Amino acid sequence: MPRFSLPDLSLDAFRRQLANVDALPQLCVLGVVSGVITGGLMVGFRLLIDLGALVFMPEADPEAFEGLSPVVRTLMPLLAVAFIGILLWRQSPAARKLGVGHVIERLTYHQGRFPLRNWLNQWWVGVMSVLGGLSAGREGPAIHLGAAASSGLGQKLRLPHNSLRVLVACGTAAGISASFNTPIAGVIFAMEVVIMEYTIAGFMPVILASTMGALVAQLVYGGEPAFQVPTLSLGSMTNLPWILVTALLIGLMAGLFIHVAKNSRITERPLWLRLSLVAVCTAAVAWWYPEAQGIGYDSLAASLNGELAIDVLLVLVVAKLLLTAITVASGIPIGIIGPVLVMGAAAGALMGMAGAWLWPDNSADPGLYAMLGMAAMMGAVLQAPLAALMALLELTHNPNIILPGMLAVVVSCLTSRQLCRCDGFFISTTRHGLHPLQQPLMQALSRVSVPAVMERSLVRTYRMVSRDQARSLLEGNPVWVLIERSTDDKPTLALKAADLARWLIEHAEPKDGNSSELIDLLEIPGLRLDMAPIHLQATLSEALARLNDKAVDALYVEHGNRPKQKRISGIITRGAIERYYRFDSSSS
User: Fold this and answer.
1) Structure pTM?
2) Would strands 458-462 and 480-484 be described as parallel, antiparallel, or unpaired?
3) 571 phi and psi, to 5 degrees?
4) Computed from CA positions of residues 313, 315, 318, 322, in that sequence, does the dihedral angle turn out positive or negative?
5) 295-351: per-residue pLDDT in tens?
6) Contact 534, 542 (CB under 8 A)
7) Do the strands 493-496 and 528-535 form a parallel or antiparallel pair, or are they unpaired?
8) Residue 44: how many CB atoms within 10 A of its CB?
9) For 387, what's the count of Cα atoms within 13 Å in the CB-facing half-sphere?
10) Burial 11-41 (b: 16+ CB within 10 A, else e)
11) Which 8-state DSSP code applies to residue 132?
């Protein structure tokens, strides 16, 4: 009777499967869990903002700064900046890193691991910056909270690092999806801005996470998007030249925003001066134009519907742009995506009004230009044209807007990149011109962890062994013999087992039968590789960096978290990594 074996459903088996590049079912499970967690966190974050608005905002609306008296809405940013400055700058510089930029940094240089202190800071800084009337959005905090929580789940389960980067993408997509109710845009944003690559193994779990994030948010807030968008159409094709001019100007706006936000002259000023600059400028604008405060979704909806006066639109273009950029340059970690959408919509509405004045018979509604300006500004600032187009499509539910949208987004992105010499807002280029996440080798090696490539067939021994001991070592047909040269119980050299077997064959046992004669494994002719340790969760990109840093050709893979209880699971060589990369490149 045939015997059937049940599949191994243990957590260790789950980790081993995740180490491979094609662990789609396992990654999809993680994507679903990540989406639920992030959706719940985003609901909690928005509820905190709503709770704060319930205390002192008119009609409990966190956007209703216009209903406050000039004195109150002027004092709010002063108090918010003071509060953030006192509490945040008492901490270390590392703890003050928040938002999307922090997510990309941790993914690039820390394998997607996030400090708990930064995550806790993001909660109150995000709520305080929005409710305090600063020109700030909630999407940056949502992305940080979702990505860090999803990664924290992977760290708690001690999953391999290649799955942590997928979890970061899942948390990012679910954060955007739950904020705007735009699941497709969330997926594209995660892949285009954070992960910076498109792969099947990455897309499927991220799609599931984005879907679950949107579903959780819809259970609480309904299926409507973050702001209402009217149904408009392009009408005459004669609008296309003016759309090109609009996109060109918005591309220049995006370049100005990035240059001011990354202005080193502001950064070099004393802390008290930077914070005072943000507080005073925001308070001054708030006295006359409260529309520039907060995220600005109410102002965005009004500009789409043609309900804002020209002076208010000019303030949203000029003042909100400078306020947001100066706040970022001063070191206050705020979300920029919401304000960027508001700036772009206001600029587009102004250009639409100008077009209606120049060509009253053929010009499209200014609301259409506001929609295109919103997408063009987002694409140009983030250098994420596809994410901007998907956001435009999902927010408008109008496929007819895609053609002019593509034209506007591409022209604005090219203008910002080529004329203003700006990369994406969250990307810092290296001297080779590419962010590390954009480098093909790092991308390929980050998709798989060490267990998928390492050689598990090995034995450990000291350098001096008898013939009987040598034969005993070879009984299991190992591939490598790890040699310990000192008493610290750590192997430092690897010898091919075939070389030891060959030596035993070529050097027959002495005629006197003295098999107790010791053999020095360091004297046997053969290839010996210097080694250094690496953890079982590491990716191949980490392994390659470790090989280069330690100037060795092999790594022994340690398993376990306690120093005295670590065991060696395998060995990985530089050649094995190179063979994997060549195979992966040829198959793809």
Assistant:
1) 0.87
2) parallel
3) -135, 140
4) negative
5) 999 999 999 999 999 999 999 999 999 999 999 999 999 999 999 999 999 999 999
6) yes
7) antiparallel
8) 12
9) 30
10) eeebbbbbbbbebbebbbebbebbbbbbbbb
11) T
